[in-house]
Specification:
The protein is an alpha+beta fold. It is built from seven helices and nine strands; from the N terminus they run αααααββαββαβββββ.
Length: about 200
């Protein structure tokens, strides 16, 4: 909403010039929209390999000397935008670019722009093991009442107590089904979207 983040359909690598050595035609096609929908087409498994297993992609990212490089250097296994694979790596890349464009740590930026307007002061944010940066993919710990505030914020199209916190329309855009995920579910922009079946009809 501040105009700092790159356009969603722009290539991710354009915003990460430090990793230009990893550029290939396939990786150059990965956009921020692909990261939001977890469809960059890279090899990634944190769903079927247990999180405590050394082969789990998320665990390997968390202990990597450079988590961003670890994500970017994974082999391409599908065209970008075609195949969903749940990936904390995509969230990590989004956070890395947000940090560069705002010049802020993710937790500090979230404290000012999101948590403070919602009167959320009691939170914990876990860190990546090697860089000590906030773990964007799975690091936030909130009280139930504060997590409920985030739900209400989304239901109110990003408005809290009459004050806009999110850009107008972003809540509905981000919760639109973008791709099928694991049969029963859809995935939006970093949101799981469930379905209920009743009498032959599907309800979202």
């Amino acid at each position: 909403g501040e105009g700092l983040f790159p356009p969603l359909d722009s290539p991710v690598l354009d915003a990460l010039p430090d990793y230009a050595d990893l550029r290939t035609p396939e990786r150059s096609r990965i956009t921020f929209r692909h990261l939001l929908t977890m469809t960059p087409g890279i090899s990634w498994d944190e769903t079927y390999v247990p999180y405590g297993d050394a082969a789990n992609s998320s665990l390997r990212m968390r202990v990597a000397a450079d988590p961003v490089r670890y994500v970017l250097e994974q082999p391409i296994v599908a065209p970008a935008g075609k195949v969903f694979a749940y990936s904390g790596g995509t969230t990590t890349l989004l956070a890395a670019v947000l940090g560069r464009t705002t010049g802020r740590r993710l937790d500090d930026y979230a404290r000012e722009k999101l948590f403070a307007p919602l009167d959320i002061s009691d939170f914990e944010w876990m860190q990546l093991w090697t860089t000590r940066e906030p773990s964007a993919a799975s690091g936030v710990r909130l009280r139930p009442r504060d997590l409920a505030k985030l739900g209400q914020l989304m239901l109110a199209d990003g408005v809290w107590n009459g004050r806009p916190v999110l850009p107008k329309g972003w809540a509905s855009q981000s919760t639109q089904p973008r791709i099928g995920a694991d049969g029963l579910y859809y995935f939006g922009y970093q949101w799981w979207l469930g379905r209920t079946f009743e009498r032959g009809r599907s309800y979202q």
